[in-house]
Amino acid sequence: MVWAPDRDAGVWASVARLGEVGGAVVGFLGAALNPSGTSVCAHGYHGSLHSWARQKDTQADAGAGIANWEPQLSPSGHFGSVQDVCWDPSGSYLLSASLDQTTRLHAPCMRAGQQPQERPRWLEIARPQIHGYDMRCAAFVSGLQYVSGADEKVVRVFQATQQFVSLWRAATGANASEAGFDDASSALAVGASLPVLGLSNKAVESTQVQALMDADSSIINNSSSSDAHRTNDTYQVRQTHTDVVAAAAIARAQRAAGQSANGGAWLPMEEDLLRHTLWPEADKLYGHAYEIFAVAASHSGAWVATACRATAERFAGIRLYSTRTWQPPAVSVEGLETAVPLAAHSLTITRLCFSPPSAANGSSDDSDRYLLSVSRDRSWALYERTRGDGEGEEDDAAYAEPTGPYRLVRRQQKAHTRIIWDAAWAPDARFFATASRDKTVKLWPASLADEPSAPAKPVALAFPEPVTAIDFLPALLTGAADDSLRYVLAAALESGRVFVLEGAGRSDGAAVPTVWTPSEVPRAETHAAMVQRLAWRPRPERGRRSSQRLWQLASASDDQTVRILAVDL
């Protein structure tokens, strides 16, 4: 509440009440007023910031002794350790998962009057999942669908909404067709809601919105008035948290893009992020005995691989699910069809990775040939696809192979001397890397899958601290002086330091480069705690010079921040 002295009465009186009574913010723990008295900033129970700016008072407001305050866009972010970050396949936006029990979507938003060569600001534009369990991992199946795992035994599938697509287009000025979901967006639900005491976001269909509009159009037209909130229809809506009225208000704000003071497009405030930017839950994937720890989606979008915490071999299996049916692939065992997990490890699997298209083929048909897993048991395992091209292979016939669509072809025990935290494939799938607590990153040729008994001779890269996250640039770069190809690998350490290494392709035809040149990211631009995940953006951005291309590297850390670094390569 904002107070001011009443000179006639000689007492202090309330001139404004900021925030939303009975909203989802829970409450404010403190607030500060700027010296000029024109702006207020408050912090909420969930670590969020809220701000209001005083507008020019109307004659009616001045006569009633009421100040006119409007909410403003405030910085947002996680208030718990960020465990995972991943880009959508087109690189249009970034998804982060945190121990604060939320997943959040970040996108580059345009300012009013911004020139094309100016760098946009990255803002949180949606909070698809607000959960009751700590979030651990997430992976995009497509630009409009992702799967997530938390400290529960269930993997959840989420689908975007029409409201999100409209908001993303208005905020970023991007073309939906460039992101590959222009045609698909019309089939999406309008919005989503979270039922009382529930964990599953429910879809809000266009028929529900139309039914409410037909019942009482005045509710939609006057959704901000106190009278509208007292009607029985709206009361029922608010009790079930469907809140179609607020969704209609957001839609009107989106149509008014360009008239907002928040940069030329309507952008969600903290209250909107908590309630109005959810994604509906499309399905649940069952089968694990303990909390989910790792998920991965194939490049073709046909398969999802999951793993859970494990202290014994029988729990350390990888479960595959078809994205067509959201069921495990059927495997024929002694005439019976059953779901059999991929087994190779004895402790928790920390990372799962599908291979990209190989250098020899380069087409999407060759992607996802291998599935790589690394574990706390210090080993890695390589599984090869048994049939199909990774797309459209899920027919009704059960797999004759005992493991289904993938089979184990190589397991490397004692690959490191300590826990293996992360793994990544080179962009041409000729080799892959593993990162460990033993302060090394090791590079292994993919040809080991063809020679199960051949001795492994990896290229080892030493670091001053345990390596907790790695990722390869998703493209091969051409050398400046010649036509040689360069690989780029990002590696993050336990203290928060980040290195970018470049390695030239071998002239002798060997798969794995042996010479790598490291460069450390300035310490002021990196994290203050352990980095949990690194992820290169799938496509570069234009720099200040027309010929300059900047690659962007996203990182998630225990210091509760998500950072996006622009790397000039």
How is this structure best described in words?
The model is unreliable at 224-242, 256-263 and 389-394 (pLDDT under 50). This protein is mainly β. The chain starts with a strand and ends with a strand. α2 runs parallel beside α6.
Helices, strands, pairings?
Elements: E1 2-6, E2 11-16, E3 28-33, E4 39-44, E5 49-54, H1 59-64, E6 69-72, E7 82-87, E8 94-98, E9 102-109, E10 121-130, E11 135-142, E12 145-150, E13 155-159, H2 162-172, E14 191-193, E15 202-204, H3 206-215, H4 217-221, H5 232-239, H6 244-255, H7 270-275, E16 281-285, E17 292-297, E18 303-308, E19 319-322, E20 331-333, E21 336-338, E22 349-354, E23 370-375, E24 380-385, E25 406-412, E26 420-425, E27 431-436, E28 440-445, E29 459-462, E30 467-472, E31 477-478, E32 485-493, E33 498-504, E34 516-520, E35 531-536, E36 541-542, E37 549-557, E38 562-568
Helix pairs in contact: 2-6
**Oligomeric form:** single chain
Mean pLDDT metric: 82
Cα end-to-end separation: 51 Å
Alpha carbon gyration radius: 26 Å
- With helices defined by DSSP (H or I, 4 residues minimum), what is the helix count? 7
Q: Major sheet: size, sense and barrel closure?
A: 5 strands, antiparallel
Strand residues, percent: 35-45%
